[in-house]
Amino acid sequence: MPFRSALLCVLISACVFYSFAYGDEEKRFVALLEDGRVVEDDVLRNWYSGNAMPQLAGQSLINGGNPMRWMVDRSLGPAEMPNAYIELFSGDRIPGHPDAYAAEGVEYQADVPEHFLITPSFPFRRSTNSRYRSDIRVRRDFVRKIVWEQLPALIDRHVPATVFLKNGREITFRAIRFSEAGIHLLVERERMSFGFHEIAELHLEVESPWQSHLRELAILFPGGKVAPADQQRLVQWETSDGLVATTSVQRIDADSRGDNNNSDRWAHGIQPAWSIDPIWVECRSTWMRRSWAFDEMPLFRLPYHESRDGAMFSRNGFSARINRGILAGTAKSGDRISGWSLGVMAPSRLSFALPPIATGFRTSVGIDQAAHDRGCIVGRVFVSWESSPKFESKSIVGSEKTTEGGNIHWNSLPGDGQLILEVDMAHQDRPEGADPFDIRDMVNWIEPRVLLDHQKLREAIDEQTPETILAWSGWQLTSDIAKLRFHTTRRRVEYPFEAPSWRTTVVAKDEPLRLTTTKRIAPETSYLEINAAKFDGGDEPNIEVRINDIPVLSEPLKNVNTHDHVNTPAPYLVDLTPFAGHEVTLEVSQTPGPDNIAVDWRGIHFLSEPSFLMPVLDAPSEKQVDSLLTIAGQPAGAIWRNDIRLVSRPALEINDGPWVQIASFDRPIEIRERPLPGQYRQLRFAFEKQGDGYVQIRLLHDRDTESPAIYSVGTSKADQGVIKLDPKKIKENDWHQVGPDIFSNFRELNITGIAIQSVGESKSTWDHFVFSSSARHYDQLASISPLNNNWDDWQKRSEEVLPQLRKALVQVDRPQKPGRPAIMIDQGQGIFAMLGDDDWKRGNQVTITRDDGKKFPAKCLGMDEESQLGLIRIENIEQDGQWTQINLAGNDKFDRRFAYMLAQQDSEPELIAWDICRPITFTNAIEILSGSPSIDFSIGAIAIDRNHQVAGFVRGKCPNGEPILTIAHPLTQKRATLKGD
User: Fold this and answer.
1) For residue 557, what is the DSSP state?
2) CA–CA distance from 450 to each of 116, 224, 394, 538, 926 (Å)?
C-alpha cells in the first residue's frame, strides 16, 4: 500500500479511537495536576467572578500547592488553523483579519506602542455594547507572523524577514517599514512597496526570543514579584475558534452571564502582554487551558530548526507540529492527551537555542495514538556542548506507553548552548512485529519544558520592568529600583473609548521615584503635560517636577473617576515658556506613599497646547490684535491692553459696533455631550464693560446662518433665540467671568470660529477664552483669573505702598559680594530681611544704604539654610522718621490666584524700580513669575503681596529671565531663632 494511503487509513482508525476514548462515559472536563494526578468532573466550579479561582472535583486548578498543568473540555476539539491571523513570538495566535498598522503615539492622553489592528473572527467583547472597540490592538514588538491568506506549507513554520505574496512570489528583505495599509521593503539595494491586500503571509525578523520572553514576563509579572507566591503562573487559553492567548493569573477577570453554576454562562477577561486591550473569552468555547510556573518555559515557545536527514517513505513533508500530532488533531500518547507537545515524524532532529539562564529540561516521549500499536522509535535528548545524550529511551513500539525523559540538569551553559531532541526510526534491531523504516513513526515530545534559574529570572525581570512603562520612554530612572514596588493593576474604568484593562503601576515606598532627562525646549513647546493617576487613597503620594533644579510643580496625585472620563483627573501641566529655546535638565518624581497605593503612569508629553484645554487668543500680541477683522471682513479697530491694572494682561478691547472675529479654527472644535480627549463641552471667558449696554459672544459653526449660537451677558432683552447668561446686569468697570455649558445650550456643535460684540454705549475688554471638556479642568491652568483685576487694583495699590517701600527698602553691601536688596521688617529693633547665600555667617559686618543715600553699619544674624533667607540688624537704629517697616506675610504656601509687586532700589537710591508680576508655575514655596519687559530684577528683589506684606524674595532667574520667587514664610516661622533670641 502506498505510504500516504496507509497514513490515511491510520488517520481514519485514529479518529475512531479518539471517538471511543472520549465517549459519553467520560467526564466533560479533565485536568492533569503538577504532581501527575488526573482529576475530572462534568462540572467546572467557582470561576464566575474576578475574585474566585476554578475548581474541578474539589481540586483548586490555579492557586495552591498542586495547580493544573492543563485542563481540557472533552466536548470540544482543537480548531483548524485559521485562514487569517496574527502569530506572536510565543506561539500565541489571534484569528481574524489584520486591518491596519498604527505607529507609536498618544491615544486619549496615554502612550501606545506601534501596533496592528485586527478584527477578530470570534466574539471578544464583554458585552455587545457598540461603544467598545470592534478591533484588538496587537503590539508590533511581539508579532512574528501576519497572515492574510494562509499558506498550508507554512503552518508552524517561520521564515524570518520574508514576505509571501498572493501571486506566489517570495521576497526576503533587509529592512521593513509599515504604513497604515502596507509595507515598504529594502531588498538588497532595491526598494519595494506592497499593500496588505497583496500579501498572503508576512514573516518578521524577531529579536532574541529570550528578550521577547523577558519583556512578556516583565509585563505580566512586573518586578518579578507576585503575591501570593502560588499565583506566579501563566495560563494559556486555546479555543475552538482558534485563539491561543497567554496571560498571568493576575490578569484574569471573570463574569457570569446568568447561572453562576453553569460554566457555559461564564466569560473570562484576559490581557496577554501583546494586547493593548482585554480579550473576553467564552468558557463554552475554550477547549484547552495550559498552565506553568513563571520560571519554566514550555519548549514550543522557542524557535527551532528541524532536520529530517535519513527519512525514507516520509521524506516529503511531515514537518514538526506545535501542540498537535504530526497528522494534526490532538496529540495523544499512552493513556492521555498531551497538554502541549511537539509532534514529529521520525527521523527528526529538533535544535533549540537555550535561554542564558536555563538550568535543566523535562519531557516525556511516546508514539502518537494515530500509530495505534505500531511504529518503533528511540528518543534522545542532547545538549550541544556534550557528546553523549542526556537521555536515551529504549525502543518504543506503539502508542500504548510513554517514556519519561528524567530530570535533566547542567551546571553551566555556554553562550551558544543548544538543546537537541532527536527521534530515530530504530530500523536496526527493532523488536519483532515493529514497522520497518519510518512507517507510522509518529512521535510526540510530551509537555517539554526548560527550567530557569529562579533568582536570576527575578533579577532580569526586575531590570526589564521599567522599560515596559511606555510613559517613561526617553526618561532615565535614577531611583534605586530595589526601593520601588511594581504591580499589575486593573484600570477599573468604563469610558466610551476605553474598557477596563491591566496596567503596570508603581509604588515608591522608601524614597521618591525619579525620572530625569536633558532636553532642549523648542520655542513652540509651551507645556509639559503629565498624565499619571491612582485608583484609591488620599492625598499622597505627590507628583513633583523640577527644571534645572527649580521646583515648578508639587501636587497630590488624584484618583481616577471610574465611570465618567470627563471628570477623571486632568493631566498635570507645567508652563515651559520660561525655558523655551534652552537645553534644560528635567526631573519628574513620585513621592513615597502607602504600600497599597500604586500609580499608573500613562504619558509624559511636551506640547504646544494642553490636550484637554483649548486656550483661544491666549496672551495676544499687539500685532495679532491690530490685525483682527469684523465678520464682514473690515478692520475691527481692536485695542491691545497691557496696562498694570490688568493683572492677567494682555487683554483685548473693542468698541461698540459689529461682530469682531477673534479666532478661526482650521479643524473645528467639536462640542459633545461626553467629549473624548480632543473634544470639548465647556467655555470660559471674562470681560469688563464700561458704560451701559451688554456684551455678546458668538460661536461660529457650520450651521451658523440658519441656527446661530449666541450668548448674551448683562441683559434680559437680547434677541429671541439668544442664550442669556448671568449676570443679567453688569457692574461697570468690574470684570465678570462666565462659564457656559455649550452642549446644554446648543447640543452638538462643530465650532469654526469665535466672534464678540459690545452692544450699547462705550467699550468692553475681553480676556481668558478657554474651551474645556469639564469645568474642573480649568483648575489646571496656572494663569490668574481676570476676576483678580477687581480684587487687585495694582494701579491704586502701588500708589499706597510705594511711599512705604521707599523708607523700608535698602541696599546691603557685604565685603567682596554684589549688593542685594533688603527690607525692614522690624523698625523698633532695626531688623531687615534679605536673601543670603552659602557664605552667610552670623556676626559678619555689612553696610546698609537707605534711599536718601545714607549708610549704616549692620551685622548678619541667622539664616535659614534651606531657603537661604536671613536677617540683618542695625545696632542702635536712629528713629529719625526716615524709616518704616513692611510686615512679613504669614502664609505657609503661595496662592497662585494673586499677582505680586516686585521691587528693588533703582540705580538712583531715591527711586524704586518695580513692576507687577503674576505666577507662571508654582509649588507651595517656589513660584516662577512673569518677567518685566522693562526691569531686570536682581537676585534678592522683594515681592509684596496684595495685603502690602512681604511675600517672598527673588532667589534666581529662568533662562529667559523670569524671576524665581521663594516664599518668606521661613522668616516668620523661625524669626526668633534667626534673631538669636
Assistant:
1) P
2) 31, 18, 23, 45, 56
The domain that contains 961 carries what CATH number? 2.40.10.120
Helix (H, G, I), strand (E, B) or coil at 418: strand
Distance between CA 781 and CA 796 in Å, rounded?
27
- Written as nine digits, the cell of 533 is 493617576
**What pLDDT does 392 receive?**
95
pLDDT at 691: 85
Cell reading at 316: 516529503
| Spatial CB neighbours of 747, under 8 Å, sequence gap ≥ 6 | none
Which of 821, 801, 804, 802 is closest to 882 using CA atoms? Answer: 804
Dihedral sign from CA coordinates of 412, 418, 423, 427: negative
Task: Tell me if 440 sits within 8 A of 314, measured CB to CB.
Answer: no
8 A C-beta contact, residue 688 and residue 785: no
| One-letter amino acid of 537 | G
The C-alpha cell at 415 is 553562550
Quick one: 595 and 653 in the same domain? no
Q: Cell triple for residue 929?
A: 513669575
Give the length of the chain.
981
* Neighbour tally for 119: CB within 10 Å: 14
Residue written as grid cell 481692536: 638
Residues 6+ apart with CB under 8 A from 340: 70, 290, 298, 300, 323, 447, 448
Task: Judge whether 770 and 684 are in contact, CB under 8 Å.
Answer: yes
Q: What share of the chain is helix, strand, coil (3-state, %, to 5)?
A: 15, 40, 45
* Separation between Cα atoms, residue 682 and residue 421, nearest integer Å: 67
Residue recorded with cell 446662518: 705
* Structural domain that includes position 444: 298-452
Are 621 and 757 found together in one domain?
Answer: yes
Helix (H, G, I), strand (E, B) or coil at 820: strand
Residues 558 and 537 in one domain: yes
Determine contact, residues 140/129, Cβ cutoff 8 Å: no
> Are residue 386 and residue 430 in the same domain, yes or no?
yes
Asked if residue 782 and residue 641 are part of one domain, the reply reads yes
- Total of domains in the chain: 6
Cα 110 to Cα 112: distance, rounded to the nearest angstrom: 6
pLDDT < 70 positions in the chain? 1-25, 127-132, 427-434, 909
Q: What is the Cα Rg of the chain in Å?
A: 37
Which contacts (CB < 8 Å, 24+ apart) does range 1-8 have? 3/313, 3/314, 3/439, 6/439, 6/440, 7/327, 7/440
C-alpha closest to that of 592 among 559, 638, 543, 548: 543
